[in-house]
Amino acid sequence: MDAIVTAGLTKRYGHGTRPIHIPGRGSTAEIRALEELSIEVHEGEIFGFLGPNGAGKSTMIRLLLGFLHPTAGSGAVFGLDIVRDSVEIRRRTGYLPGGIALYDTLTGERLLDYLAGLTGRPPVRRAELCDRLELSAATLRRLVRDYSRGMRQKIGIVQALQHDPELAILDEPTEGLDPLMQRAFYGILDDLKSAGRTIFFSSHVLSEVERVCDRVAIIRRGRLVALEDVDALLARRKRNVEMRVQDPAPVLEGVPGVSNLTVADGLVTCQLEGDVGPFLAAIRDSRIVDLTIEPAHLEEAFLELYHDEAEVAE
Amino acid sequence: MNRALYLHTWRSQRLKILIVFVALTIWGALLPIVYGTFGQTFKDIISSGLIPEELTQFGGGDIFTLSGSIALGAIHPISLILNSIFAVGFATAAIAGERQRGTLEVLLARPLSRRTTYLTLLAATLTFVGVALLATIVGAIAGSAIGGVLDELAVDRLPLLWLNGFLLFGAIAAIGLAASVSFDRLSPALGVAVGLVVVMYFLEVLGTFWPDAEGLQPYSLFHYFQPKAILEGALSGTDLALPAAVGIAAIAWALFEFPRRDLAAPS
Hints:
The structure holds 2 protein chains of 2 kinds.
Chain A: E1 2-13, E2 20-22, E3 26-28, E4 31-42, E5 46-50, H1 57-64, E6 72-77, E7 80-81, H2 86-91, E8 93-96, H3 108-119, H4 126-132, H5 137-140, H6 149-161, E9 167-171, H7 179-194, E10 198-202, H8 206-212, E11 215-220, E12 223-229, H9 230-236, E13 239-246, E14 258-264, E15 267-272, H10 277-283, E16 287-293, H11 298-313
Parallel strand pairs in A: 5-10, 5-11, 8-9, 9-10
Antiparallel strand pairs in A: 1-4, 1-6, 2-3, 6-7, 11-12, 13-15, 13-16, 14-15
Chain B: H1 3-47, H2 66-75, H3 77-101, H4 103-108, H5 114-146, H6 158-182, H7 186-209, H8 227-231, H9 238-260
């Protein structure tokens, strides 16, 4: 069974009511926060949900958790309807909001106890999570108001995962964590995945999405731009190639996957897409002094997709 | 109702409850002591005609009888302010305040329906209101004993007095909570609740001092708070039914409105 399924999920604000005034943009009849989004998140996978600010990421999460009501379309989590069965969905879900706000007058321990009490499931993973995120007993005895941003984020992660939910919805989970803690967090994600848990992961940090996610969905202005395996997305991405050769320069025109070729003073630059075999065959007999093929990164793929979409829109 | 949320709410308000309880006990005791000590002297002054009779009463209370002095203490602005700490302050902040701080998101991410959340917070608010009113009753008994007029106190009518006050401030609390679920920020919710209480209080007091404004008093919930009439055995059923009806209407609105609202991301 899929952990999350949405079909034409749409959220608009202001429809059928008074126009909404947006400073600098005048009045608009409605805001299209999410437009016919259809995705499937498989059980046991880490699913990345990407998009810039205002793209509709938070709207999607809030629809899944029942904070918002869909304008059209439908959604289900573990087969449960996101409108009718919201309470049961939240019983099986752990949620880390972006920029989490906590009860400042409680100690960390009291806060975690309180939230576990509300969840109604024992905090079976708390000790392990606190240990891995270096939240000591002394730290947990301090008031939350005295916590640094990173410590608040750690508490946020623990409260979302302490009851071992079947689905974790994490919005910018590494925000405020130092690199060591980020690494510890990735380890936690790996373990959750190994245990068959599903993780819905929203982030701006594309390098971490690339590192931890199996598949990604990219949305732009509320619409789905791409939904595919991270590996497949990277494989399609054009990599920048820079090669210094002694004369004569290899003949790269017409080589499959090669584009934007320039040759000047022994410096060959081009872009390479897909299989590198034909390219390597073409340069085999050249005297190469230096060769750099930049690894494909999600960031470039993301920007390329956005660039392409923008051109289509124009 | 959710037990964990109810207990957390109690724990977070315990110091405030203690302070309000002590303050209302002291205030509730003060006027019966004043009556027991100076009541006859005041009565002689009024009988002499030095002060117009209209100015000797405030909101149905006076200081010439024990029931009047208890009523005066109950309707006095000091009592109103102390009771409003929970009926208005806590009630309006219960949802809108959490929403503004961003903690409502953490709360509602748990398996709690919005109606359960609302009903739990309503139960907590009504408990606080009930405890605060109990302090007034405790103070009245203590003040009567200290002032040596306990034999004048109709102790058997005190539960009815508590009920009448509970229905008034319970209705105000229900209005505050209804405002709280209807807004994303605390200030408009607080503005609506405080505005209503101030206007209703003004209408009631105005009618007390100015006979031409008596026609406005029935539009105020405070008009149906009648401590003196209760202690003298002359309570009207309307004084219980009307605040109860207003409270139920506010609760019905909140139960309808809160689940259907969109809770966008906190700004």
